[in-house]
Amino acid sequence: MSTKKPTANNQANKDHTHPVSDQLAESLHSTVDALHDTAARTEKQLRNKGDASGQALLAQKRLLEKKWKTSDIKQYATENPVKTAGIAFGAGVLLTMLLRGK
User: Fold this and answer.
1) In angstroms, rounded to a whole number, what is the distance separating the alpha carbons of residues 45 and 40?
2) Furthest C-alpha separation in the chain
3) What is the pTM of this model?
4) pLDDT the model gives residue 101
5) How far apart are CA 14 and CA 30, in angstroms?
6) Which has the least CB within 10 A, 13, 15, 53, 82?
7) CB atoms within 10 A of CB 76
C-alpha cells in the first residue's frame, strides 16, 4: 500500500488524463454561471414590477376609500341601516330566484 503524496508532476499528469470530462465540466460551469446571471436579472425585474404594482394598488385603494367616504350610497346606508338591510335581503332573494331558474 503506497502512501505517496501527489507531487506537482503527478498532479499535472492527473489533470491531463481526463480532457473530455474536464472540457465538459468547464462547459457546464459556464452554462450554470450564465443561467445564474439570467435568473438574477429576472428576479430583480420581478421584484421591481411587484413593488410598482403594490404601490399602484395601494394608491387605487386610497382613491376608492376616499370616494366611498364621500359617496351618497354610504351616506344613505349610514342614515337608514334597516332599509339598507331590507334592500340587500330583497336583492339577494331576487338574485337567488333568477339563478335557480325554476
Assistant:
1) 9
2) 98
3) 0.48
4) 72
5) 22
6) 82
7) 13
